[in-house]
Structure formats: structure tokens, C-alpha cells
Amino acid sequence: MLRGKTSWKQTTNTGSDHVFLFLEIFEREGGIQSYVKDIFESYLSIRHQGDASSSAAKRAEIFLLRDSPECTNPFAVHPLKFHYLKSKSPMLGRFKFAAAVWQCLWQKSPSHVFCGHIKLASLTRLLCQPLGIPYTVITYGKEVWESLPHQQHKALKTATGIWTISRYTRDRLCAANDLDVEKVQLLPCVVDGDAFTPGPKSPELIAEYGLGGAKVLMTVARLWSGDIYKGVDVTIRALPAIAAVFPDVKYLVIGRGDDQPRLAQLAQDLGVAERVVFAGFIPTPALVEHYRLADAYVMPSQEGFGIVYLEAMACGKPVLAGDADGSADPLQDGRLGWRVPHRNPAAVAQACIEIFTGEDERCNGQWLRQQCLSLFDQDALTQRLKQLLNHATASSSSSVGNLD
């Protein structure tokens, strides 16, 4: 429909070659936000090498729907230009966001747009298609595991490409939405092996949390009532059986949310309240000292991937995850950790007992860290991102002018 647009784009595309659209990155912490920051770090590395574009002078424009200019942003350097569109009114904010993106696309005619969340996919299609600009949609986990609304589904169908973080999300996305699996490319999460390292348990933190002499289980998760799939309640239910074998077990829960009172009451009802320590929110830089407190990282969840498993393994800690989710990738289908039915306290208890026994190779912290970093460090992400950007460039060249 837009075949006549091709030559115009080729001659006027002088300002930006990539545009990224995200909900939020800097004013809220979470797995998606950490993942996007890792992508930016790799993207900057590629651009500074001059590999992501034929012209390293071109800027990449990043539009943020819910972030404000006051946020701390360590990536606000050339060639990245950030646009903050947060507004007190969600409706006004979305209108301002759409208008700003449209102006950028119309004036600068980028070679490719990367939509950073399925909630922005319909808008991305609406803005890109009239201008003949190819776009890729980035997906993560449960937000695309079920059948999507018509407009979001159409946006995926007409996208040049789809990126996602794990085989599990890819397979569920495609099965639920009748998409070609070959259209979905994997861009896994990674871990900073310099930030997350093994080390001794902090005596100060042991004293603060009352963990002296204890075998420590640990979880880092949001404690929101809408996120019970994280499995904190399942681990609490497993504690009586674990304590029967290891009477000194304690459970350190890192995170905050409206579900904490229910979890605390559950621990009280099961007679294990003194074994469960709710530490609240811990900033990312302080997490490594908390991982070091753990004898096992336990999160029988349903994750799109699970960056926390990588962080724990990088710190040399054995990990336990659910057996029907994206954690299959960081745990390498069980080669690097325990995978159990995610709502089964008995299975969680048995796995924790095996971990505390320490006889399995998956308890070898040095080996675990080496295996983890060989597959999921920042260099691996940079190389994979470079491949996907080159693929997007090739797809853009072949698809411009043929968008419906």
C-alpha cells in the first residue's frame, strides 16, 4: 500500500534510525525494568563500536510514558535521547506520548521502531503503518501468555518481528495467538557478574535478621496480591516439612506489597512465624549482600524468565524454580537447579532438603557461577542484540513499502 514511500524514507532518514517506546524504566524497579536497562547497556556498546547502524552519528530516540525528567537515568548519553511523557492524568499522558512519537516518526522517518511492551503495540502499529515504518514488539511473560485483544493481536501479526526473553514465553505466545514461532526471536535476560559475586555472609545482616546458625532460604519478589504466582506462600507451607529435617531453617523474604499481611498470617497459622523474616524492599545495589546470606534461593514461580535466578547463581547459590515456566532457560532445563511443580509444598520441601544436604553438583557455587556467566553475562546479550538489530535492519529493508 505504501510502495511509493520507500525512496522518500531512504533520502530523508537523517536524524534517527531507531525509536524505542516503553511504559517506564527508571521510576520503578522490577524484572522488566532491569532487563531494559541491560538492553540499553548493550545497545550503547554496539553503537559506540559503530555496528548498529551505517551512521554512528544518528540518534536513537526513547519515549517513556510513565517516567519523568527528574528520574535518575545513567543512560542519557549520546546517541540515546530520552523523552519523558509522565502526566498526572493517564489519559492526557497517553495523548502526549502518542503526539510526541508521531511527530518524531513524521519528521525523522526512522528505519525501525521497537515497541517495549504489548500495551503499546496497538499504538505502535497505528503510528508506524501509515508512514511505512517497520516495527518490532518486545514481550516478556504473562502479559502475552493468553489470547490477546484483537488490536494487540493484529499489531503482533503485522509487526516485522517479535522479541521475547524465553522459549516458554515464545511458545505460549504463539500457541495462544496463532503466531508463527519462526517470527519470534529470543533475547534472554542476563546478569552482571561483577555486581553479583560470591562472598561471606554479613555478620551485621545476620544479626539484623536473626539468622545466626540458621540454614537460610531466600526469595526476592513482589508481595502483591496479584502476584501470588511467585510462590512465597508455597515456600511458607513447605517450612514445617523442611524444619523436621533441618530444625534451624529460616526463610528470608525480600520485597514489599499488599499481600504481606496474608503471608504473615499464613506463617502464624502454620506455626512457623518465627522462621519467616520479611525484610521489605532492598535496593538493587544492596541485594548482593542479601543473596550471600542464603543457603538456597527458592522461588517456585511462573516466570517469563527470572533474572533473580541468574543473580543468585552468580552469587554461587543453589536455586529452586517452578517446572512450567520461563525459568527453564536460566536453569537450563534443570541442569543448573531444581525445578518443581510450582504450587506443590511437598515438592518444594523435598528439593530444599536435597539442597541443604549439599551432595548434588548443582550445589557447587563456583561451578554454578561459571556455568551461569558463560551463558548469561552482558557480553552474551550484546552479541545477541547485535544479531537481532542486524536482522531487523535486513527485515526493514525488505518490508518497507509492503505493509498492509
Please give the structural blueprint.
Layout: H1 6-12, E1 16-22, H2 31-48, E2 59-64, E3 80-84, H3 90-108, E4 112-115, H4 121-128, E5 135-138, H5 150-158, E6 161-164, H6 167-177, E7 184-186, H7 203-209, E8 215-220, H8 232-245, E9 249-254, H9 260-269, E10 276-280, H10 284-291, E11 296-299, H11 307-314, E12 319-322, E13 338-340, H12 345-357, H13 365-376, H14 378-399
Parallel strand pairs: 1-2, 1-4, 2-3, 4-5, 5-6, 6-7, 8-9, 8-11, 9-10, 11-12, 12-13
What average pLDDT do the residues reach? 92
The total strand number stands at 13
CATH topology of the largest domain: Rossmann fold
Report the span from N to C terminus.
6 Å
The SSE string, one letter per element, is HEHEEHEHEHEHEHEHEHEHEHEEHHH
Contiguous low-pLDDT stretches (5 residues minimum) are 1-14, 51-56
- The oligomeric status of these chains comes to single chain
CATH architectural name of the largest domain: 3-Layer(aba) Sandwich
Q: What is the percentage of strand-forming residues?
A: 15-25%
Number of helices: 14
Largest sheet: 7 strands, parallel
CATH class category label of the largest domain: Alpha Beta
Helix content: 40-55%
* Order of strands across the main sheet: 3-2-1-4-5-6-7
Shape: elongated
Structural class: alpha/beta
What's the gyration radius in Å? 23 Å
Question: How many structurally independent domains?
Answer: 2
Name given to the CATH homologous superfamily of the largest domain: Glycogen Phosphorylase B
